[in-house]
Amino acid sequence: MSPEGCENDRATFRCSGLASRQGLSTGLKFVQLDIPGALHSGESTWLKCQYELGEDELYSVKWYKNNVEFFRYLPSDMPAGQNYELLGVYVDLPRSNATHVYLYKTDLNTEGTYGCEVSTEAPSFRTVKADKELRIYGKPKQNPSLIVRNHE
């Protein structure tokens, strides 16, 4: 059974949170991680991390590929969004924000497990994280051909 606000759509998916044990929390809740399951090499895509802060204040949103951070959003920083070079991850920084990261292209190195981690400020210090697999398919260099031979 998935935690409240988390769904499993036949891809690797994990959602965890540090929240009230009584279930009465009005703070941070993870709502949805929207990452395509598969793309063709060369396509662009949005990675979406949707959450509800409730009464909490946002501290940071961090994005990971295979557990290596490639983008972070800290509203207290100027600029709020920062990206870190990572093989196969092509972030369009001006189009990325607290809930969305835009990859302006993909290649075979883009494939992996992508995660979004959301943390709140004091006094709650809540954190939720979700991961999902992204597959990349290469296009053939030339169209397929069929050769038919007659055997006499």
TrEMBL record:
Classification via InterPro entries: Ig-like_dom (IPR007110), Ig-like_dom_sf (IPR036179), Ig-like_fold (IPR013783)
Protein name: Ig-like domain-containing protein
Domain (Ig-like): residue spans on this chain: 42-135
Superkingdom of origin: Eukaryota
Database matches in SUPFAM superfamilies: Immunoglobulin
